[in-house]
Automatic annotation (TrEMBL):
Binds 1 Mg(2+) ion per subunit. The gene is PGM3. It comes from Myripristis murdjan. The keyword Ribonucleoprotein does not apply. SUPFAM superfamilies: Phosphoglucomutase, C-terminal domain, Phosphoglucomutase, first 3 domains. Residues 51-81, 118-166 form the Alpha-D-phosphohexomutase alpha/beta/alpha domain. This is Phosphoacetylglucosamine mutase. It comes from the Eukaryota. Mg(2+) binds at residues 64, 276, 278, 280. Residues 455-526 form the Alpha-D-phosphohexomutase C-terminal domain. The active site is at 64 (phosphoserine intermediate). Belongs to the phosphohexose mutase family. The keyword Magnesium applies. Catalyzes the conversion of GlcNAc-6-P into GlcNAc-1-P during the synthesis of uridine diphosphate/UDP-GlcNAc, a sugar nucleotide critical to multiple glycosylation pathways including protein N- and O-glycosylation. Substrate binds at residues 370-372, 498-502, 507.
Amino acid sequence: MQRSADTEKSALHPKPAGLVLQYGTAGFRTNAKNLDHVMFRMGLLATLRSKNTKATIGVMVTASHNPEEDNGVKLIDPMGEMVAMVWEGYATQLANAEQDDLLPALKDIIKREAINMTQEANVFVGRDTRSSGACLSQAVLDGVSTLDGHSKDYGLVTTPQLHYMVCCQNTQGQYGEATVEGYYRKLSQAFIRLTKNVPNRTDDQKHLCVDGANGIGALKVREMERHLERELQISLFNDGSSGKLNHQCGADFVKVQQKAPTGVEMTVGERCCSFDGDADRIVYYYSSSAGRFHLLDGDKIATLISTFLKELLTQAGLDLKMAVVQTAYANGSSTQYLENTMKVIMKCTKTGVKHLHHAAQEFDIGVYFESNGHGTVLFSKTAEQKIKQLAEDSTSSDEKKRAALLLQNTINVINQTVGDSISDMLLIEAILAIKGMTVQQWDAIYSDLPNRQLKVRVSNPRVIDTTDAERRAVSPAGLQEAIDSLVKKYRQARSFVRPSGTEDVVRVYAEAETQESADALAHEVSLAVYRLAGGVGDEPKPLH
Ligand code: NG1
Ligand code: ZN
């Protein structure tokens, strides 16, 4: 951005004066009409990051589970992970610079990171199905070309697909081929290898209802289907042909409302799942004969996957350290079950995928899931090597070899870069097939404690400061004491509060022995927040 022509280009993507946005838990996210300048500037920033890392960087245009009118942008680092924390700071700085301050802001980043501007840059761009996506991703591409970076526009892809492409590109194809077809081939071949030899699998067992949230996941499931050779038979609902994105459907709706999405024809006992708007989350569910809705969220998914992996490790005789990483939102029953019955190493981190991802990297095998269904499994290089060696060892027993081969194909079905609805779906379907398990049997592994999530409006949510992976509040004064004494009133109760990283609210979580208790506790804690942390608007009302 030295030349006046470049300044002119940036003037084509002007910033509305005074608008302030924050690179939050999941990047920038707001109404699409306020994002053109942010996109252009993220194109500039991704180009700098690419020069800085000498690697390809990704820019995904999406607002995930939020309404169609919104949009957002996330930056992807070289190995397919979320962008490094300091660069989140640069992103905020750059997005908020007034028009005249843009050049100095860029120069500041270049200086601080000692970026060699003659270094080549390469940026991958993708977008979800939002109507604003085409224009906004063009703004990103304009930003990249302004700094003479190369770019590749993948067009409509899921968020995890773009993460995958970035990782493939930067590992020179070792992780896979950096094409959407390559992604389908790698995942579906692994899935077919996992399920093909499972005896007596009926068509009924191969059947799954998928709610595509009227988003990109639906399009991509359709494209992938022909690679699955009918080993998985999908009935796709909310495919975007008529309904509105994320409206009354999708993983977030199902998890938060604890009810079935509209538009899905569920028969009793049938296995169903919902993706979110950019296909990086998944939850499962079914309805029982009594008409009751049963949700299998990220905690149940982590339990199924880690149990399966632990059994395989035992059969293979491999001594690998496996852990499950959760957040404070994990249902207490899941933590209890994994820790005490399964004897798995448990970790709790702050909310936000990057925290879970980093914690999971510390183990040979790290299974991480947020309760909302975002998660994946990470395998260390050592783990992958040991598994490979065993699979190729001609002296090992049949049982060990079988376990090692299953582990190898499990690794290949997983998108290790980030949570991925499609990859997680294939993994879960394969595990259920191999274990000969119904969705009801999976659900019965443990029973969720009833819980409730509420939001409280306060003038500044940041007055709440937390510690211990967000499970305790250190400020404002008296709040934690108030929560502690409310929790004592109920059996098996737990509650915590934290400022949201994506909305201007305080989130309240409560769980207890009964739904009535969880609801009452959540309400009472909301009142404490309202009174002690500067509530605005009407006082929170009881739920019943
Ligand atoms: P916030 O708004 O910080 O609670 C929400 C989710 C996170 C994560 C991010 C990013 C809950 C309680 N919180 O964050 O888990 O997924 O959005 O999308 O589900
Ligand atoms: Zn998402």
